Amino acid sequence: MTSNTTGTMLECPTFPSTQYGLVSSSTTNDADGNLVETYKIDIDDNIALITEYTFTISNAINTSLARTFVLKKRPKLPLEYMAKGNIRSLTQTNGYWVIDNELHGLSSAYFNWSTATTNFGTDDGTGFNRFSAPCSYTDPDTGETTTGNYHMPTINEWYGILPSSGVQVFRVSQNTNTTESNELKTVIGQNVLQGYSSQFYRTWSTTYDDVTYALRFMNDPVYGNSYRCAYRYQFLWPSSAQYAKYVVSCIYVGDDPTITSVNDVKAAFWANTNGKEIITRTITCTSSSPAGQRDTGAGSGSGYSLPYNTSYRSSTSATQGFACPIGPSLYIVSSYSYLGASTGNSVRLFSNN
After folding, report:
1. How far, in Å, CA of 303 to CA of 256, rounded?
2. CB-neighbour burial class of residue 67 (10 A; exposed 0-12, middle 13-18, buried 19+)
3. Which residues sit opposite 187 in a β-bridge?
4. For 262-294, what is each residue's pLDDT tens digit?
5. Full-prediction pTM beyond 0.90?
6. Could you tell me if 122 and 168 lie in one domain?
7. What's the domain range around 14?
8. Same-domain pairing of 124 and 187
9. Is the pLDDT of residue 165 over 90?
């Protein structure tokens, strides 16, 4: 494409622009009066993962401004599928399930197995839940409300957020340590990862404010490092009438050659991310309760557990008490009777998109 304003050309012979959207440009001026030209490239979801396109910007008059850059599509990451809050009520509002935006643990509805699976679907036996529940979410900062279709995640989808192979994230010992783990089948969107490896580095504090760093989804037999991410798991002790929180963050690193192990994605990496996008979700410790009831404050109310204990539903049926124990006090529960079928547990949905 050639700009009508400046004569600058944006070229990429291999990019299928007629299939994936035309390229457009616009010009503005910055604060110093310099001309700024912006190109827009529309790429839809059908572009294959990790496909590279090399673009060249050039101008016949000012050849010194020529630049070449590479665009590479990254996959949608597990945390991006996860809703930002729990389901707030046992009933819909105006045809939508409302996703909570307060994240303090006091406004989460508790669902038993029957109610949860009726409204949000079950694992079809392959690690996928094809159900579609209409949900709404209002951003607490902007007030903007968005809607979309969601489902209750299978245990294999939860593995994209938290480790799957018995690796305990928090409170392992008073010593820091690194563990490499060959993790189990993990469902991310419509893709299945299995046999990849991950590394974990755990910190420990006497105040329980623990942090664990991880480098996950390495060397998958099918996707290689296409999903490789740096993870940070933070446990935040409760204050006032709020519950404790697990804050899970990730940064996409892909095939970045400067990152070779979990040692490269510890505290210093997160302190200076060089503009990399950080994706974060907060998992509130909402306790367990008789279905339909809520706790009224940390350690009080109708809950069965302490404020730093919590359990979230999986749509995968299982014969064991917990389909996926994550830490010493965070569990993904199954349909089993104890803290499974009859008791109420929080529901965090995943997007269908």
Report:
1. 45
2. exposed
3. 192
4. 999 999 999 999 889 999 998 877 655 544 444
5. no
6. yes
7. 9-72
8. yes
9. no
Between CA 74 and CA 208 the distance in angstroms is: 35
Q: What is the 3 state secondary structure string of the chain?
A: CECCCCCCEEECCCCCHHHHCCEEEEEEECCCCCEEEEEEECCCCCCCCCCEEEEEEECCCCHHHCEEEEEECCCCCHHHHECCCCECCCCCECCEEEECCCCCCCCCCCECHHHHHHHHCCCCCCCCCCCCEEEEEECCCCCCEEEEEEECCCHHHHCCCCCCCCCCCCCCCCCCEEEEEECCCEEECCEEECCCEEEEEECCCCCCCCEEEEEEEECECCCECCCCEEEEEEEECCCCCCCCEEEEEEEECCCCCCCCCHHHHCHHHHHCCCCCCCEEEEEECCECEECCCCCCECCECCCCCCCCCEEEECCCCCCCCEEEECCCCEEEECCCHHHHHCEEEECCCEECC
Q: Are strands 229-236 and 289-290 parallel, antiparallel or unpaired?
A: unpaired
Tell me, what's the pLDDT at 134?
A: 98
Boundary residue ending a domain (72, 94, 116)? 72
- For residue 136, pLDDT over 90 is answered with yes
Hey, what are 298's tokens? Answer: 């940390």
